[in-house]
Amino acid sequence: MRILTVEETKVALEDHGLDRLQGVGMARRESHEALFYAWHDHQHHQILFARKGTTQVEGQDGRHLLPAGHALWIPARTRHRTMIRDLDGLSLFLDAEVVVGSCETIRVFPVSPVLQEMLFHVVRWSEGSLDPDPLARSCFQTLALMVQEAIGNAQKQAFVLPKATRPSLQRAMDAALLDPGRASLAMALREAGMSERSFRRHFDRETGMSWQQWISQARLFHAATLLAQGESVTRVAAETGYVSLSAFAKAFTRLLGVPPARFRGQSR
């Protein structure tokens, strides 16, 4: 994976044309094998769509999983960093002064066939849409309304792994994410330097989840990434700490909406 510095990320965004966007919006195809953008923000709303591959976007509220067949809304001026793996999709940028987004947080939402066609249709304006072009303006504004509707119908917490503000808790989370399949409560307590009772109380309060719910979701995020890379379902289940293949399949399907084998096929 190529990891970009803050300066390299800034140059990459300028190369994409964000510093010279004209009109309501612009769209560009995204095709990367493995790329990690550093923390940044931009003056435009962004919609990142993954037709294939799996991407993770980290914001101030947590880490968001973008599986194939879904898109992610990033409001203008929202600091984030992006880890892309084998992505085939597109990025859409919208003028925040013209297209007012009702959603002020990063959100993942499923993309219908009609919305997917609309997203790829606006790629024709890869250099930006000029204001006098009524078709471009209408397409981008209609697309923005459809996206807002999709966000409103999507589950709020399905694809986000919350972060903590307390340094001791975040230290335990960061350690767990290095190897979620082997992370344990004992390890988390050690990293946080807290008693179990205090840890559980503060963890629940800050994340809205229990430790077990959080680490289970972290394991499934990791599983989605491994499956998108082509790893076998059996190997991924073992790597993410599941002894039972059926238990893994059930948990994965509950979160992602499709069985692991189908997800693997859709992501490649």
How would you summarize the topology of this molecule?
Blueprint: E1 2-3, H1 6-15, E2 25-40, E3 44-59, E4 62-66, E5 70-74, E6 80-95, E7 107-110, H2 113-121, H3 134-153, E8 160-162, H4 167-178, H5 185-192, H6 196-207, H7 211-228, H8 233-239, H9 245-256, H10 260-266
Parallel strand pairs: 1-2
Antiparallel strand pairs: 2-6, 3-4, 3-5, 3-6, 4-8, 5-7
Helix pairs in contact: 4-5
Describe this entry's structure for a reader.
The chain has 268 residues and is of the alpha+beta class. It has two domains: 2-153, Jelly Rolls (Sandwich); 163-266, Arc Repressor Mutant, subunit A (Orthogonal Bundle). The protein is 43% helix and 25% strand. It contains ten helices and eight strands. The protein has helices spanning 6-15, 113-121, 134-153, 167-178, 185-192, 196-207, 211-228, 233-239, 245-256, 260-266; strands spanning 2-3, 25-40, 44-59, 62-66, 70-74, 80-95, 107-110, 160-162. Strands 1, 2, 3, 4, 5, 6, 7 and 8 form an eight-stranded mixed β-sheet that branches. Helix 1 (6-15) links the parallel strand 1 and strand 2. Helix 4 crosses helix 5. The longest helix has 20 residues, at 134-153. It is globular and about 60 Å long. The model has no long low-confidence stretch (mean pLDDT 90).
Oligomer: single chain
CATH class of the largest domain: Mainly Beta
CATH superfamily of the largest domain: Regulatory protein AraC
How many separate domains make up the residues?
2
Beta-strand segment tally = 8
Q: Quote the average pLDDT.
A: 90
The largest pleated sheet is described as: 8 strands, mixed
Percentage of β-strand residues? 25-35%
Helix/strand order: EHEEEEEEHHEHHHHHHH
